[in-house]
Structure formats: structure tokens, C-alpha cells
Specification:
The chain has ten helices and ten strands. It has a single domain (2-105, 180-260), classed as 3-Layer(aba) Sandwich (Rossmann fold). By secondary structure, the protein is of the alpha/beta class. It has a six-stranded mixed sheet with strand order 6-7-8-3-9-10, with helices on both faces. The chain has helices spanning 2-14, 60-67, 90-96, 113-123, 132-148, 164-176, 194-209, 221-227, 245-250, 252-260, and strands spanning 22-31, 34-44, 49-53, 75-80, 83-84, 98-100, 182-186, 213-217, 230-235, 238-243. The structure holds adenosine-5'-triphosphate and magnesium ion.
């Protein structure tokens, strides 16, 4: 275990010769007696779909919360586009181009789907810059995204009236409205039926083709294996393996971690 962790550390620092889009170094976070993230270093290559997997409670969501500034880290550093984002709050980090979705989709139940899509534009503080005509343009962009996700027929339905899968798609669409460079997806396929699963995977791939980098947490292994170019396995808050999906899947350290958990 120690060997592969060390090997990973070297790789993370070198980043395969390319500069990382997101670089996490020696990140730690403790909640009382629980060490949720433990000296975690990992890198996300620009243009990749990188998977972050691991058993329940291994610290995946906590890594997302630390990177996006939702909670404060105990130690370590995070840089995005080679610039430190340490100490910045969620809105600043979001404004720099890191979007995220949540394990349980967070949408506004009393806003319509299309209104939900416009919240990120407001949040990014762009509203003031827009004339009425530009706002119309934003609305058209929102409709285009809803069409792309095949949920434009519910554009005027309240968020609260959408199905679970539609909420997942809406949340993905909404995060795209702020034109992020990197999107952290926390279980985009969790609890979604197989047909929708395929659509979500396909749309993530197509967004990636347009240049969006993804770091995705997911328990559905075939989803991860199909989509990701690189996978990092967390166990008790530490990366224990990294590499191509097929290699990671066969890694005995990884199999032990899952069986042990
Ligand atoms: N706000 C918090 N307060 C206390 N403990 C927390 C908090 N958030 C997470 N933890 C603990 O930290 C550990 C890591 O949790 P985390 O949610 O990051 O895991 P995860 O890998 O996302 O798990 P899952 O796959 O079940 O979503 C767990 O032991 C969890 O109980
Ligand atoms: Mg989680």
C-alpha cells in the first residue's frame, strides 16, 4: 500500500510531464476523532475525466468540500491553473471556474427548471453586467442546455416537481451555465435508472469533448470504467492507487480496500 502511494505521489507531482489543471498536495481534514482526508495528494490533468473512487466514508465528498472552499482544510494546499486557491471562499473559487454538483442534487424547488439554470449566472455576479438583451441571451443559452440534456419539456416546471433523474440532469446543466473549466461531480449516476445513466454518461463525455475537465466521484464501476481516462482510489482519506481504469480495477491493494471496507 505504502509503495503504490509513494509511486502515486511522484506521478502526481510530475503530472506525466503536463501541467495539472487541479493540483492537491498533502491535504488533510479531521472531524473530531475522524480523519476524513489524510495527507492526500492528487492531480487532475486538463481535458481529462478523472474518477475519484473509494468505499463509503473514504473522504471523497470531503475532498470536494475542501477544494471548493465549503470547508476549511487542516493542512495542505490546492492550486488551480497553477495558482493557489488556499483560503478562498466558495464564491471566489466558483468564479475562478470550478463548478460542482452535490451527492444529493441541490436545486431550488420553488423555481422553475429554467430559472434554476439562471441562478449560477446571477451567482457569478454577471447579472449587473447584462442588459435586458443579454439576459435574453442567457435564457436562450439555458434553453439550449436543457435541450442538450433532453429536459427542455420541463423548462417551466417547478424544480420540486421534477423526477430524481431530471434533477440530476438539471443540476449538471445549471453548473455548466457558469462556464466552468473544471466540474466536480459527486455521484452523478447515484440512484439513477439505467436509461438515464447512459444519457448522463454520454452528456458528460460530450461536454468533455467541448473542453470541460471533470473530476467525478461515483460508486457505479462500469460508469467510471467507461468514462474515465484516469482513476484515483481513496481509502481512509488517502490515495492508494492511481492509473488507467483497467489497471486500477485489477490492483490487489484496491481489491483489499474494497473487501476490507
Ligand atoms: N461535517 C462532518 N462532520 C463530521 N464528520 C464528517 C463530516 N463530513 C464527513 N465526515 C466523516 O468523514 C468521513 C469521510 O466522509 P465523506 O462524506 O467525505 O466520505 P465519502 O467518501 O464521500 O463517502 P460516500 O461514498 O458514502 O459518500 C466519514 O467518516 C464521515 O462520517
Ligand atoms: Mg460522498
Amino acid at each position: 500500500m505504502e509503495g503504490s502511494h509513494r509511486a502515486f505521489g511522484v506521478r502526481a507531482i510530475q503530472g506525466g510531464g503536463a501541467v495539472s489543471l487541479l493540483q492537491i498536495d498533502n491535504l488533510s481534514k479531521r472531524f473530531g476523532g475522524v480523519v476524513a482526508v489524510d495527507d492526500c495528494s492528487l492531480a487532475v490533468a486538463p481535458g481529462s475525466i478523472t474518477g475519484l473512487i473509494g468505499p463509503n466514508g473514504s473522504g471523497k465528498t470531503t475532498v470536494f468540500n475542501l477544494v471548493t472552499g465549503f470547508i476549511r482544510k487542516d493542512t495542505g494546499s490546492v492550486s488551480f491553473n497553477s495558482k493557489s486557491i488556499d483560503g478562498l471562499g466558495p464564491d471566489r473559487i466558483y468564479g475562478l471556474g470550478i463548478g460542482r454538483t452535490f451527492q444529493l442534487a441541490r436545486i431550488f424547488p420553488r423555481l422553475t427548471a429554467v430559472e434554476n439554470m439562471l441562478v449560477p449566472v446571477r451567482r457569478k455576479g454577471l447579472r449587473a453586467l447584462f442588459s435586458r438583451a443579454d439576459w435574453g441571451h442567457e435564457k436562450a443559452r439555458a434553453m439550449e442546455m436543457l435541450e442538450f440534456l433532453e429536459i427542455s419539456h420541463v423548462a417551466n416546471s417547478l424544480g420540486g416537481a421534477l423526477s430524481y433523474g431530471q434533477r440530476k440532469l438539471l443540476e449538471l446543466g445549471a453548473v455548466m451555465m457558469a462556464e466552468p473549466q473544471l466540474v466536480l461531480l459527486d455521484e452523478p449516476a447515484g440512484g439513477v435508472n439505467p436509461a438515464l445513466l447512459e444519457r448522463i454518461g454520454d452528456r458528460i463525455r460530450r461536454l468533455n469533448d467541448r473542453g470541460i475537465t471533470f473530476l467525478l466521484v461515483e460508486h457505479n464501476m462500469s460508469f467510471v470504467m467507461n468514462l474515465c481516462s484516469e482513476v484515483v482510489v481513496l481509502y481512509r482519506g488517502r490515495p492508494i492507487a492511481t492509473g488507467a481504469p483497467e489497471a486500477v480495477r485489477k490492483d490487489p491493494t484496491v481489491l483489499d480496500a474494497y473487501l476490507g471496507a
